[in-house]
Amino acid sequence: MYECVITAPGTALKTNNLFEVSRLAAVSRSMQNGNTEVLVTDYLSGKPITDASVTYYSGKRREMQPQGTVKTDKDGIAVFPHKRDMMAYQVARPGDSQTMLTAVYPNGRREISQTKSPELALFTDRGLYRPGQSLYFKGIAYTNTTDKPHAIEGETFKVTLRDANWKEVATKEFKTNKFGSFNGEFTLPQQTLGGMFTLSTEYQSVNFRVEEYKRPTFFIDLLPVKGEITFGDLVTIQGKAQTFSGISLQSGEITYRINKRPFWLRSYISSFSNEQVAEGQVTVNSDGTFSFSFRPEKSSSNLPAYQSYLVTATLTDSNGETQEATSVFSVGTSSIVLNTDLSGQLDKDSVKASVSAQTLNGEKITVNGTYTINRLGDTEKPTKYGFI
């Protein structure tokens, strides 16, 4: 063991530190039964050291007294008995006995109870109910101890149903079977405030919604925009209205509106505008189809421009049911996008590049074109729009 002293000439400043030179490395851990286990190894080889002496100390910080010594086994492990006042230990062996004390932190050690509270998984048959409907649920009780996890048989659980205001609606008790499970049901109140209800026990709770709702009977589908389109082209939006059983709606009025949306492509971002640029009404055909047209206009800027549009279509049937559908399409100065698949590392004698083309709306297309390979520095610096 050595002491390092550092002083500043001409002043009274001084600092000192102790350090050791040893081949002994030791780490400790607290066991579930309260004992402390110390592993002693060789600093250089990492191999466990047999028959090393590990002495444990207790007492105040500057007045510690040795309480006992334990030898390490063939695996380099020494086990101290459970002592609440143990504060430190020291490792030694013949020829290497001047090691410093290593602190033990008793507050970091805890005894684990052999009896754990049961854990409970609670499930409902749905996540959404109407007032007055039956709520079916199931619970599974188990213990998750590290030595022998198992289901808990014969345990009684009290299950409470609470409304959106946390008011108790009903309570029932259930006993688990040999598989650790139980199941039951509650009838939800017919007259109640909708919202988030809770099914709870002492160990677990689960939330679900209670709302007055109607199942939809039909839906609207807006078809993707096909083909190459640019500013000034007439874009036709097509769609279909049908029931969930596949029967087309034979009548109805479609109300639509079209709003601008930002266009994103690589480093290009259009303006963040939500301006409405078109609206109108069309009639559903006898086969359930409908269509309407829109001509997107380019801004006054001379730079390349691209814009996305959000289409919203709403249909109300003769029974008063309303359904809505949305779709997004994009147009630009150029109607297509080229993508190059080129590896970051290339063999100079064999370079392969894959180029694909698609419309601004993601439709794969076939086009003819030319390519040019330039040495870096031979061309002008590309603009931020040069990737289009």
Features:
five-stranded mixed beta sheet, mainly beta, flat, four-stranded antiparallel beta sheet
Lay out the secondary structure.
Elements: E1 2-7, E2 14-19, E3 24-30, E4 36-42, E5 53-58, E6 65-71, E7 77-80, E8 86-92, E9 102-103, E10 119-124, E11 128-129, E12 134-143, E13 150-151, E14 156-162, E15 168-175, E16 181-187, E17 195-200, E18 205-210, E19 218-222, E20 235-243, E21 253-261, E22 264-265, E23 268-269, E24 276-283, E25 289-294, E26 306-316, E27 322-332, E28 336-341, E29 354-359
Parallel strand pairs: 11-18
Antiparallel strand pairs: 1-2, 3-4, 4-7, 5-6, 5-8, 8-9, 10-12, 12-13, 12-16, 14-15, 14-17, 17-18, 19-20, 20-25, 21-24, 21-26, 22-23, 26-27, 28-29
Could you explain how this protein is built, in words?
The chain is mostly beta strands. It is 0% helix and 47% strand. The protein is built from no helices and 29 strands. The chain has strands spanning 2-7, 14-19, 24-30, 36-42, 53-58, 65-71, 77-80, 86-92, 102-103, 119-124, 128-129, 134-143, 150-151, 156-162, 168-175, 181-187, 195-200, 205-210, 218-222, 235-243, 253-261, 264-265, 268-269, 276-283, 289-294, 306-316, 322-332, 336-341, 354-359. The strands form 9 sheets. The protein has a 5-stranded mixed beta sheet with strand order 11-18-17-14-15, with no helix packed on it. The model is unreliable at 107-114 and 384-388 (pLDDT under 50).
